[in-house]
Design goal:
Number of helices: 3
CATH class: Alpha Beta
Number of strands: 4
Pfam families: EthD
InterPro entries: Dimeric_a/b-barrel, EthD_dom
Protein name: EthD family reductase
CATH architecture: 2-Layer Sandwich
Organism: Streptomyces huasconensis
Structural class: alpha+beta
Length: about 100
């Protein structure tokens, strides 16, 4: 499996971010072909100090090729372009292969 993680620093207008994200952006995500599963949260916390991020999104893909195909598809490009409509604090995008732990 391959994971895509999007970290959102504090936006200029948190209420606008939440409203736009839920009302406009997530419906685009829901119809995005490619992810096996996805999830998000506005309740980002750290064990000590102040969290550097306001929100987080993660999506699971079969592998890196499936993620890249989804990101570069017309729908994926529409999703990327939409980020500017709410993420005034910027965005950090990570991706990595997920390895199973051995106990």
């Amino acid at each position: 499996m391959h994971k895509l993680v999007v970290l959102y620093p504090e936006p200029a207008d948190p209420d606008h971010f939440r409203d736009y994200y839920v009302t406009n952006h997530l419906p685009l995500v829901a119809s995005w072909p490619g992810p096996l599963a996805w999830r998000y949260s506005f309740d980002v916390a750290v064990t000590e100090g102040e969290a550097p991020y306001f929100a987080v999104f993660e999506a699971d893909f079969a592998d890196a090729a499936a993620m890249e195909e989804a990101r570069t598809s017309p729908h994926g490009e529409r999703l990327s372009a939409d980020v500017a409509n709410y993420a005034t604090g910027g965005v950090v995008i990570l991706h990595y292969p997920v390895l199973d732990g051995a106990g």
